[in-house]
Design a protein that fits this description.
Blueprint: H1 18-26, E1 41-45, H2 48-54, H3 60-75, H4 78-81, H5 84-100, H6 102-115, H7 119-126, H8 128-134, E2 145-151, E3 154-163, E4 171-177, E5 186-191, E6 200-203, E7 208-212, H9 225-235, H10 239-247, E8 256-260, E9 266-271, E10 276-281, E11 285-288, H11 295-298, H12 308-324, H13 333-340, E12 360-368, E13 373-378, E14 387-390
Parallel strand pairs: 1-4
Antiparallel strand pairs: 2-3, 2-11, 3-12, 4-5, 5-6, 6-7, 7-8, 8-9, 9-10, 12-13, 13-14
């Protein structure tokens, strides 16, 4: 495997100026319009490289936004890559991806080719958060609230996607198909220039999953959850198959997954490198925000409970649990959406768009595994109408 370009002298094609990043992040998050914007569903068909290349089939202005966003994310790893330990970890992760997750690397190379980027720089942008955390430099930004529950009609999985508002123009529903996938086509929520299921997704077999970011000290050689999510949907028909694959996979560490399937099973997975905490159930409610809850991983939380981000994550967890407990087996889609559209004060908002905050809610996805699809709110769930995206 080649050494990433960021680890060599010269050859950089993106702007990695930390001052540029600081200026960008100093700006308040752009207020999202209450009416949202038209969702663009992107079709990605064929092998991994082809699917990556097809992401760049968009207007030049959008390709420019992707390049700028990738450059800003890549810049977050710059200080870590100036250290020997940081360069060693980045190179090891690149090599691990090529040896054990070749399709993921091919997809990254396809995206880079399409957007006119260096593949290694795109890879570093996708791993910047983990690289910073591994060097004890966590970056508190993403939020996200995920709830899984079982109704009389079957399981439902919902996620508020909380990220910087500038990501909204890049957000897409990716409709993917590769003839080599065991479980058929996939619908994924993500952003152009990213792994197509980096936020959430569902396959034709009826397996749905969604993630949340958790700043952790438990990082090591393994695969990131963004890539793992795509692999689970490509090859696992239900929660139990997904859990089996998770158990035998080496993980980079960081984040949680909530899973639901058409057979009525729910699960949560807290992803560390050294250990994973798995909870499987056939009834009830599961909620995750942005900190680990399990005894084995609580001590690895890199964000203190007393910090602003730590307090917000725990507050959203309490609010979401309390509201979810009021739902009944006959609750409707509107009832569940109202939970995710909830505002404080004095409680933390679940639908986040008040200043100051490094993240705001740019979408809500409600997955219906029995129906092989999702309802999607592109923008604030408190102010936009959903659209249906199905696989049948």
């Amino acid at each position: 495997m080649p050494v990433p370009s960021a680890l060599r002298q010269g050859g950089r094609q993106l702007s990695h100026d930390p001052a540029d990043l600081a200026r960008h992040l100093a700006r308040p998050c752009r207020r999202l319009p209450l009416g949202g914007q038209s969702m663009i569903e992107v079709s990605l068909v064929g092998d991994a490289h082809s699917r990556g290349l097809q992401q760049a089939d968009c207007p030049p202005r959008v390709r420019g936004l992707v390049r700028r966003w990738i450059g800003l994310r890549r810049a977050r790893a710059a200080s870590v890559l100036r250290t020997r330990a940081g360069r060693r970890m980045a190179t090891a992760l690149w090599d691990h991806l090529g040896r054990h997750h070749a399709d993921a690397l091919a997809e990254i190379e396809g995206m880079a080719e399409g957007f006119g980027l260096v593949a290694e720089d795109l890879f570093l942008a996708m791993h910047a958060v983990a690289l910073r955390e591994s060097a004890a430099r966590p970056w508190a930004e993403d939020g996200c609230t995920t709830v899984g529950l079982r109704l009389r009609s079957g399981t439902v999985l919902g996620k508020n996607r909380d990220v910087p508002g500038d990501v909204l123009p890049l957000q897409r529903v990716f409709r993917q198909h590769d003839p080599n996938w065991r479980c058929g086509p996939i619908l994924g929520i993500s952003s152009l220039g990213s792994a197509p299921c980096a936020s959430s997704g569902i396959n034709r077999a009826g397996l749905a999953l969604a993630d949340t970011q958790v700043a952790t000290r438990d990082h090591g050689l393994g695969v990131s959850r963004y890539i793992l999510m795509q692999e689970l949907l490509a090859h696992c028909a239900d929660v139990d198959q997904a859990l089996m694959r998770i158990r035998r996979t080496a993980h980079l560490g960081g984040g949680t997954l909530v899973l639901a399937d058409a057979g009525g099973t729910l699960a949560t997975v807290e992803l560390g490198h050294g250990r994973q905490a798995i909870e499987r159930r056939r009834a009830g409610i599961v909620v995750r925000t942005n900190h680990h809850l399990s005894p084995g991983l609580r001590g690895a939380n890199a964000e203190p409970a007393s910090s602003a981000a730590g307090r917000n994550s725990r507050g959203r967890l309490d609010v979401a649990r309390r509201l979810a407990a009021t739902l009944t087996p006959d609750s409707t889609r509107s009832d569940i959406a109202a939970l995710f559209a909830r505002h404080g004060p004095p409680e933390p908002d679940l639908c986040r768009h008040r200043k100051p905050s490094p993240a705001e809610t740019i979408s809500l996805a409600l997955f219906a595994p029995q129906d092989r699809g999702l309802w999607f709110w592109n923008g604030r769930p408190c102010g936009v109408s959903p659209t249906w995206h199905g696989l049948d």
